Amino acid sequence: MKYLLAIALISAGTLGLAGCASRAETVGTVGGAAAGGAVGSAVTGGSTIGTVGGAAAGGILGDQLGKEYDKRHK
Q1: Nearest Cα to 39, choosing from 16, 63, 62, 18?
Q2: Interatomic CA distance for residues 37 and 39, integer angstroms
Q3: Residue 1 in this model has a pLDDT that exceeds 80
Q4: Residue 29 sits in which domain range?
Q5: Which residue has the higher pLDDT, 67 or 8?
Q6: Among candidates 9, 17, 12, 18, which has minimal Cα distance to 52?
Q7: Which residue blocks in the chain are alpha helix, DSSP H?
Q8: What is the pLDDT of residues 46-69, one digit of tens each?
Q9: How far apart, in whole angstroms, are the C-alpha atoms of residue 45 and residue 60?
Q10: What is the value of pTM for the model shown?
Q11: Measured between alpha carbons, how far is 8 from 14 in angstroms, rounded to an integer?
Q12: Considering its fold, how many domains does the chain have in total?
């Protein structure tokens, strides 16, 4: 349950922040946050801090990948 709540909160936050971004950045941010949260949770045995940290790191990485995609596909 903690895992799902943390992912829901991170996803809501990243959707708000990604509202002004391109579609690739938004997809990258949200997808990265979800994947990062899952990995962070798995690596730390389900800790909330690991889940949130993983989601934050994944969101940042996904956003950067989305920006790179936009640069290459203009």
Answers
A1: 62
A2: 5
A3: no
A4: 2-72
A5: 67
A6: 9
A7: 2-17, 23-43, 48-72
A8: 888 898 899 999 989 998 998 898
A9: 22
A10: 0.70
A11: 10
A12: 1
